[in-house]
Amino acid sequence: MSNIRVRFPPSPTGFCHVGTARMAVLNYLFARKHGGTIVFRSEDTDKERSSPEFEEDILDSLKWLGLSWDEFYRQSERTEIYRAALRTLIDEGKAYVSEEESKKEAGVKVRIIRLKNPGTKITFTDIIRGDITFDTTELKDFAIARSDVDPLYHLAVVVDDADMKITHVIRGEDHISNTPRQILIQEALGYPRPVYAHYPLHLSADRSKLSKRTGDVAVRSYREKGYLGDALLNYIAVLGWTPPSEREILSLDEMIAEFELKDLHKSGAVFDLEKLRWYNREYLLQKTDEEFAVYALPILEDALKERGVAWDSAMGQNILHIIRERISVGDDIKNFAAEGEFDFFFADPLLDSTRIPQKGVGATDTTRHLEAVRQLLGDLAESAYRDAETIKGAVWDYATAEGRGAVLWPLRYALTGKDKSPDPFVVAHIIGKEVTLRRIDSALKNLANV
Ligand code: GLU
């Protein structure tokens, strides 16, 4: 272990959002790269807005993404340590108690503890942004605690960073303006200054800042939609960082090997849902058939049951490769299923006789073609249905001679009841001989009634 120590310091005032995850990923990659230690610090000093439910969601979400940490603290359990620091500051004349009118309740006096601000110019070096100088005069004597029992955020952060021996503070640039205040408190307490790295925040697709409170940026909402933890992690990591190898798909270990803070982009990346979908698809394609079945079948089963379509798990297995071809994320299975895209594998379709013939082909010719195809497919042994190519071979010459659309459109429609679907040979192969012939017969009956 090196002496490098970083922190994940989320405030549990909302569900774990992508911004929190990104903060954690960047700290994680940096710490693991250098054999450092990661401290998880729940910054729950805002009692009104913090909740254990949110803290649990943040812990769960980060673990689900594949992240881990080495130490865990909760600020609400460390009040004594902050009070001791406050006492030191007051005793040394670096902070003072002032009686003030409450901002919340008129006529009520409150005790505020304010830091005596020396009003100096502060320059700190940021790994990503270079030297940053602030004139701290305008910060005046800012508040560091409400009464001596309620330390405010900046004090708690500074005391914790020192107590936990944090060496690197890696956080979003929305915290830059906090840094001079925090350095002033550090200097008053005689603490060492950590190294700072403020990275640009990412933007949502419409280039607005991603808000913590927007439900759809919560990590859990991606999880619920069927995104994979490793796909989301990979996308979050490369959002605003290009690994030197320029590879897009990297495992956590590969990211650790390539990671350098200085390679983080200097301007905010846009969170692009299409790109996330691409990542998820790539990760789904890497799954074995068994893994994909475990992922996809429960989603398909639920969605079909919702439509009142009888579930058949063997059929579910049979269409897994078709599903894998078409989707980027589990939610796509749900949506396609809800649109009836998979019904015909499980139940005979309802046919509209006017749609059986290809456009421009009459019912008589269509009937003749379907009868011929029925004959050819009926002559095939059941074992021939194990392979879509054999089925295709059986009707191909006839279709070529008579016009492929005129022959194959009605066959496909008879089998699926859909204008768009996989080709009829694949469908026949999946549903088998008996069902194939039954559906052709039913289309022929339909045509006879026109
Ligand atoms: N608790 C702060 C937040 O969730 C982060 C504090 C820090 O990085 O210094 O925004």
TrEMBL record:
Source organism: Candidatus Kaiserbacteria bacterium RIFCSPHIGHO2_01_FULL_53_29
Cited CDD domains: GluRS_core (cd00808)
Residues annotated to bind ATP: 212
GO biological process, alphabetically ordered: glutamyl-tRNA aminoacylation
Position of sequence motif 'KMSKS' region: 209-213
Motif ('HIGH' region): 10-20
Self-association state and partner proteins as the record states: Monomer.
Function: Catalyzes the attachment of glutamate to tRNA(Glu) in a two-step reaction: glutamate is first activated by ATP to form Glu-AMP and then transferred to the acceptor end of tRNA(Glu).
Catalysis: reaction(s): tRNA(Glu) + L-glutamate + ATP = L-glutamyl-tRNA(Glu) + AMP + diphosphate
Family: Belongs to the class-I aminoacyl-tRNA synthetase family. Glutamate--tRNA ligase type 1 subfamily.
Record-given protein name: Glutamate--tRNA ligase
Gene3D superfamilies tied to this protein: 1.10.10.350, HUPs
EC number: 6.1.1.17
The organism's taxonomic lineage, starting at the top: Bacteria, Candidatus Kaiseribacteriota
The Aminoacyl-tRNA synthetase class I anticodon-binding domain, residue ranges: 311-444
UniProt key word Cytoplasm: yes
InterPro entries in alphabetical order: aa-tRNA-synth_I_cd-bd (IPR045462), aa-tRNA-synth_I_codon-bd_sub2 (IPR020751), aa_tRNA-synth_I_cd-bd_sf (IPR008925), Glu-tRNA-ligase_bac/mito (IPR004527), Glu/Gln-tRNA-synth (IPR000924), Glu/Gln-tRNA-synth_Ib_cat-dom (IPR020058), GluQ/Sye (IPR049940), GluRS_core (IPR033910)
Superkingdom of origin: Bacteria
